[in-house]
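pasting input
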Amino acid sequence: MAFFSDALAHTAITGVALGLLGESAVELWLGLALPPGIPSGLLILWCLGAAWVMASLFESARWRPDTVMAFCFTGSVAFGVLVLGKLGRYGFLEETLFGDINANSWGDVAVLGVVTVSAAIVLGRRLREFLLILLDEDLALADGIPVRRFNRILVLLVAAVVAIALKLLGALLVSALLVIPAAAARLVAPNLRLLLVFAGIGGFLGSVGGVVLSFYLDLATGPTIVLTQLALLLIALGLQPLLRGRSRSQSRGSIEATDSQSIWPSSESR
Amino acid sequence: MGQEDARGPEGESDRADISARRASGRPLLLRTAGIAAGYGEETAFEEVSLEVYGREVVSLIGPNGAGKTTLLRCLAGILPLRQGRVEKAPGLRMSYLPQRLVFDRLLPVTVAEFLSLRLGRPFFRPAWPEGERVESLDELGVTSLLDRRLGELSGGELQRVLVAAALAKRPQLLLLDEPATGVDLLGAAAFDALLHRLRDRDGLGILMVSHDLHLVHHISDWVYFLNRRILASGPPKEVMREERLAAAYQRFPHPG
């Protein structure tokens, strides 16, 4: 999923370019400016569509998934850059690649909120299914979970989240927000429940912290967020040995304390 | 001989055995009629017709690549059928036990979380509730493993967790894929005892794929010999006569 989110973010360059093209066309022919929020809504639709196409290509088994992603994203970057060049709006390339938090209108913020809340609701309601699939797809299928459908839903969720994070972090950095908080949480979480909680908190703290820091230090927002996330990862890495030692001794204690009724006299209590 | 092989179960087994099995009064749990499945362009097995009754251990034996695991995966609903029909007793509860669990060992999933997920219990409950006992967990010594991570368990412990999870769903039919491979720690005798108890006390039907012909011979009520088709079926003492097995494994060496 890490490379997938990366590839998807890059296809967004074409999405942005086409959005600008559409905007200019509307202005030129109809003399109207698009209301705020519409461009980011369209960008989300673009990402959902690109994700759907890529997921379908993954299943066709004609190519390996990384091959599919490679040609999808290089193709989109190439096409998007050409269109931006023709429109004479290379400035948008930088914004798309690195993000610009100040370029967000209140309409964008509203779209962002709606997408975030809906993604959280879908994930929350279907957490059991997603986690079972994560653990073992065969077992999930045997438990009667329609794995293919859920994988598609997950792909669309990632696409929607990537699309809204693009405005903040840009295509080059977007996958940091998807990957780093989870990686940091995995280092310190004693179980899966806390991993989910820690990843959420880490992502939130890193992003808000990054925004605040970038404001006070007068730095670009996207890169500051990514570096703040990385700092949290390093802290987690430092904490890991301490937590590891404690959970080890705890679990050993609990096994000795339980009078196991095992029918298989096993070696675990030794 | 090719002609006879194609006739399926009845082709080689004694009709008296078959009618005795059908007349035993045990409920029919699952019946397949001429099913086939495979991967890509390969056909793993075809024209498989078999039956599993309650209170019965049925074993699938056959050489490597015979389609045994694929057949079990089909019955578990993991792989779609290409042909034929599977009839199940109405409301049949089935549990499938894979040969091994393929999962990311770095993921900090605890045994309690794994069981909560598989049993459809609320996931964010802080711990397995005190005092709540699930019989199969106690029986398999899994209660003491609840706080351990799945990734730190030994092969035998993991196998016990998987068995316990499968049994906690109170299945009427258990599909076991090579249950004896991970059980080095458990001891074969204990595993036999478990199978016997599940069959005789709980009345489960068990369909099991196994390479362990010794285990199959003494525990099975019925054996199907599969090599892409069912080449023989019957009580183990009939199907597993030495000269017959030797001939079968020789005639059908590892395909491909």
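fyi Chain B touches chain A at residues 40, 73, 76-78, 95-96, 98, 101-104, 106-110, 113-114, 117-118, 120, 123-124, 138-141, 143-145, 147-149, 154, 156-157, 160, 185-187, 190, 193-194 (CB under 8 Å).
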